[in-house]
Amino acid sequence: MSERLTVFKTYKLFVGGKFPRSESGRVYEVTDSKGNWLANAPQSSRKDARDAVVAARKAVGGWSGATAYNRGQVLYRVAEMLEGRKDQFVREVADAEGLSKAKAAAVVDAAIDRWVWYAGWTDKIGQITGSTNPVAGPFFNVSATEPTGVVAVLAPQESSFLGLVSVIAPAIATGNTVVVVASEKAPLPALSLGEVLATSDVPGGVVNILSGRTAEMAPTLASHQDVNAIDLAGADAEFAKELEIAAADNLKRVLRPRPADWTADPGTERMTAFLETRTVWHPTGSLGAGGSSY
Amino acid sequence: MSFTYAPAPESRSVVDIAPSYGLFIDGEFTEATGGKVFKTVSPSSEEVLSEVAHGSAEDVDRAVKAARKAFEKWSALPGSERAKYLFRIARIIQERSRELAVLETLDNGKPIKETRDADLPLVAAHFFYYAGWADKLDHAGYGANPRPLGVAGQVIPWNFPLLMLAWKIAPALATGNTVVLKPAETTPLSALFFADICRQAGLPKGVVNIVTGDGTTGAALVAHEGVNKVAFTGSTAVGKAIARTVAGSDKKLTLELGGKGANIVFDDAPIDQAVEGIVQGIFFNQGQVCCAGSRLLVQESIQDELLDSLKRRLSTLRLGDPLDKNTDIGAINSAEQLARITELADSGEAEGAERWAPACELPSAGYWFAPTLFTNVTQAHRIAREEIFGPVLSVLSFRTPDEAVAKANNSQYGLSAGIWTEKGSRMLAVASKLRAGVVWANTFNKFDPTSPFGGFKESGFGREGGRHGLEAYLDV
């Protein structure tokens, strides 16, 4: 009896909750760490990047306006969905990064737990970043943080899944929407993550995932006037500087690349980088002199 | 013209109550030492729902030992693993929320629309919120690596049985403590169902122990030497007794006690919204709410208009079968509580206040009290000073904001207050002078797991909910 022939998956982009091919019709060959062919991934164009920004912008109102509790539920749902599709991601991560099955499984476990970590942050980050301010006058004065808007994310090149999740989840936990450029040589886990997000109650457009040449898309995103911030995790130092200069044109918030251990406790930096602080003043009026004596 | 609603009862078939329940100790249901039991009844019908084990001091000792044993491993788990247990519990509660809502309504007597739309969503949200803290304690503002206390002895009331359980257990477990919880004598069932949720979540044995019983069981728990933390929600009198019991020990104590909340309505308030807020403030859960707005302070110039609207609104409240989805006012939780409400309301009349209640037929079985309001109330009247814990509103008036504040603060309690005004600066000025732990402006009885709750003065100390709620369970 002959062995059954497997069905290959056509890897596609994830933009606005849909799975388009690149508008350019281009693909590029993705291989495993030993050079074996894995798939033809879409090679996104600058137009794809701009389309993704449009989708991300459209999703900002709904996502940033959702309650923090609701966003937490959605992020937790992503973890639930991933847990059920773990085997697929272990395979893809093992292929992409040349890891043993056991090591790839540990990476995927950590990525799932990272969604859980950020699911818990959605309704707490504001409690550690905000404050009531005892100004010297009869005013109620409160500072609260809110998302900056659309964040372009150059995903880490080496850590195709844990690194990817570690840059997406914090940005959307706080209510931003993202356009993500996947690891150039290992984009398949990222493209598969789109399938998980699409079935996890994440509204369309909140996360948009592009595969292709980072060097082609990144300048478009860095100079795009409707992008509010950029995470340069996936750029080397020289390229990052160039992109940071482009980003200055509309004063994007920039998170510079730095050596990262994606398995370490992530802290709060990747959330606070994409938050704005708003302070509200309101007179408290007066009921007469002095405070309460009781 | 009058019209009637057809009955719309929620089905009881979603909940399966066993004829008897044991104590949940070390992951197993076990009989009480000596086999003593008590009955729990449905307050709306007096039907016996189940027989429940009556935990003795020996049983409390067993439970505390189980919790102590479980503490070592539980507190040593990475926070991220404890978080995942709590997230599981939150999700299972969401899945089983219809069942638990019906159960709670049967055992407590409160309307299904409240258990379904308020209690259960808040219970799940509370676990979800504190689950997220379990691996973030370093960020909570209590220094690096704050430690748990050990075994928490928790005693909760009957007015929000499962919600009070959530308020107690979620932060305790998130911070790495283990618990022995005693639910109220009249509402033990949802806590026992929670034991089953712990089983489904795979929670390690002994992390949560439920010991049912009466006041003597609770007293044994708070006095137990192996308990490191005592958390109590209930009456101020019992809270004081507990404070005396733990005096001189190392036990950390938080108390969430009674209240006599002032709901202050200024002349510029939107009357219709204020009326809804007043109704919500005192008739939610039949007024059996520690933070109820049980004193209405209304500015003299709008008193007549407001009272007319309020009486009209009260006449539309529907009292009856708590399982009916249209019911606004359910049953009083117990005969004992009904007697207390009745006695205090009678004192109001005897002391010269004017009593009013809408025409309202009370069912023949069960414990019922019509929504009632008193006018011509003075600050010296018992109904203006004592917590009634029932659907009884005392109306007082004021002329100036200063007078409103003075009257609002004229209480041994300091749990909640409400302010109704369209003027922001007045709202903030008054709020800043109210000696109350929670002040609602142009709303009332709002709760959220992210928001700290608790009292000033004799309403207790410590806060539950929010980042502040972690402190009660950390060695800080």
TrEMBL record, chain B:
<dbReference type="InterPro" id="IPR015590">
    <property type="entry name" value="Aldehyde_DH_dom"/>
</dbReference>
<comment type="similarity">
    <text>Belongs to the aldehyde dehydrogenase family.</text>
</comment>
<keyword id="KW-0560">Oxidoreductase</keyword>
<dbReference type="InterPro" id="IPR016161">
    <property type="entry name" value="Ald_DH/histidinol_DH"/>
</dbReference>
<dbReference type="InterPro" id="IPR016160">
    <property type="entry name" value="Ald_DH_CS_CYS"/>
</dbReference>
<dbReference type="Pfam" id="PF00171">
    <property type="entry name" value="Aldedh"/>
</dbReference>
<dbReference type="InterPro" id="IPR016163">
    <property type="entry name" value="Ald_DH_C"/>
</dbReference>
<dbReference type="InterPro" id="IPR016162">
    <property type="entry name" value="Ald_DH_N"/>
</dbReference>
<protein>
    <submittedName>
        <fullName>Betaine-aldehyde dehydrogenase</fullName>
    </submittedName>
</protein>
<feature type="domain" description="Aldehyde dehydrogenase">
    <location>
        <begin position="30"/>
        <end position="475"/>
    </location>
</feature>
<dbReference type="GO" id="GO:0016620">
    <property type="term" value="F:oxidoreductase activity, acting on the aldehyde or oxo group of donors, NAD or NADP as acceptor"/>
</dbReference>
